[in-house]
Amino acid sequence: MARSFGGSQTEANTTRIVGTCGYMSPEYAIDGLFSTKSDVFSFGVLLLEIFSGERNRCFEHPDHNLNLLGHAWRCFNEDKLTELVDRAILESSNQHEVFRVIQVGLLCVQEYPEDRPDMSSVVMMLSSKIALPISKKPGFFTERKRHERDYSSRKHTLSSSNEYSITTIAPR
Q: Which run of H or E residues covers position 134?
């Protein structure tokens, strides 16, 4: 359902928002405005998830409360991309190429659709060594405040309060 375009149509307004949280572009999630740049945003989230080994929605860091996009942006600005990339990928790949893909991912998740590249440009950036523009702040660069009760209730739901159980098998 995320939407089919007709003819040369490149964007649309929707009255019903359908999508997966964490992958929807800000303009679609907030205003119902869907375009080809909405797909680019989702692709950028996927790139960052693949290379970090983390999910955007479930991301947690001990030093801050940013989501994965915010953490990637922070690592990029502080020139600490090694902290973002999954160790297995970093050890088995060319570091320069990995950082390039991260930068392309950040270009894809920029807050405003007009700042994001189109998908043909993304393919060109990933398959060549052309110079990349400097990315701007990502959309949904959020910092969440977690309450202690949220943590404690989550911890309790993961375990059973039963100390033991007995199962018997009986014929029908």
A: none
- Secondary structure of 9-25 in HEC code, one letter for each residue: CCEEECCCCCCCCCCCC
CA-to-CA distance for 78 and 8, rounded, in angstroms?
Answer: 41
Task: Provide the CA 100 distance to its chain's centre, in angstroms.
Answer: 17
Write the CB contacts of 143 (distance below 8 Å, at least 6 apart in sequence). 64, 65, 66, 70
**Which candidate, 56, 54, 80, 90, places its Cα nearest to that of 70?**
56
Q: Residues 132-159: pLDDT tens digits?
A: 999 998 876 555 565 554 544 444 444 4
**DSSP-derived secondary structure for 8-70:** T--EEE-SS--S-TTTS-HHHHHH-EEEHHHHHHHHHHHHHHHHHTS-TTT--BTTB-B-HHH
Ramachandran bin of 150, using left for φ above 0, alpha for ψ from -120 to 50, beta for the remaining angles = alpha
Whole-angstrom distance, CA of residue 130 vs CA of residue 38: 24
Any bridge partners for residue 12, and if so which? 34
For the stretch 78-114, pLDDT in tens is: 999 998 899 999 888 899 999 999 999 999 999 999 9
Distance, in Å, from the CA atom of 107 to the CA atom of 115, rounded to the nearest integer, reads 8
Distance separating alpha carbons of residues 155 and 56, to the nearest angstrom: 21
| 119 token code pair | 């998908």
What letter represents residue 124's amino acid?
M
Which pLDDT belongs to residue 4? 56
